[in-house]
Amino acid sequence: LLHEYRARTPRSAAAFQRAAAVLPGGETRFITYYPPYPVILAEGHGSRLYDVDGIEYLDLVNNYTSLVHGNAYEPAMQAAAAVLSSGPVFPSPHELQWHLAELLVSRIPSVQRVRFTNSGTEASVLAARLARRATRRARLLLFDGAYHGSAPPLLAGDPDVVTVPYNDLDATAKALTGDIAAVFAEPFLGAAGVIPAQPGFLSAVADLARERGALFVLDEVQSLRNAVGGEQGRLGLRPDLTVMGKVIGGGMPIGAIGGSEELMRLTAATTEGNLAHSGTFNGHLTAAAAGAVTLRHLDAGAIDRLDRAACRLADAITTAAAEAGIAASVTRAGSILNLHLAATAPLDAEQARAAATPALAALHVALLLDGVYTTPRGMINLSTALDADDLERAAQAYAHAFQRLADADI
Ligand code: PMP
Q1: What is the pTM of this model?
Q2: Ligand 1 and 251: CB distance under 6 A
């Protein structure tokens, strides 16, 4: 398999070598590496990606959920380009920032005020600081396998972090002691394998948090695209703080937190004893402009079409696996899916890790060889740029890859 891969991608191999001479490991974002070297992408248009060898791929990654309308989405890119000619960032507030904030406030009932950052990671850090300040408590409760960004204190192993298994209410109740400032939760475990919350789990966690004087922070960095008001609307949740990112920047770097006027007031320059919050590029106008267009075009109809496409693809992949005699399941939250090589869908990160066998990585390479760009860990994200023919082609590539796996051809 790797022989085929190397033979097909010589320019990627050479480019990666050159990158590795100046970037440790040849990359600057862990997730973009897989052995022996990643295909080096050069261009993307709509549902298609092109690598430096000129190979075309069907894009089932969409930059890990940030591109809900596909690559180089014209209206978003035009909005960003318009900003470039008048100045993309100023040392003053700008109307494009409050226009995007107005959109978020109108879509998400728990969000009355918004503060922008440059990434989801920074937004999580700001949410943690705000929770600590508001509660005068130090520790955070996270779920095993959750990803809130690559900075402390949102990392398992940080001294101020307690971690419990997702979907385990008893463990959550036990860990929610009087020194916890906030519980951070994703509406589904994203990076750990798109594992949905069990019905009622998150509302029970939110109730427990409030009962014990901790904030309930919902990380909707990935999930905001799954409903007009985010997954919180679908799940009937009203978090104290919402962490946002990815799709709200329309492909440009962004992050944000949102919450009640009362809580968010602590981040204002006008508030005495405030929590200092600055950033040279906060609310960058390319992201504000591209994000607003992207969200306007992500209405209930578009989301419904994405949902139905994702449902059909999940069915097609599970059917293809069954036909090839491969034990597999697909978990799904809206248009975000994950393939697991286990007959039953995992309920927490540990079960997902067990299902992420070397065969999953082999499938990823087999799919690349068929011109379908997915992730080594089995995650798939759809975009509105994919049409029925694209999805049919994707399903066929999965069927072919499963067959190769069954035949021990990969
Ligand atoms: N939270 C979640 C749920 C995420 O998926 C991510 C990124 N994958 C982040 C936070 C961090 O966002 P960023 O990569 O923009 O820092």
Answers
A1: 0.97
A2: no
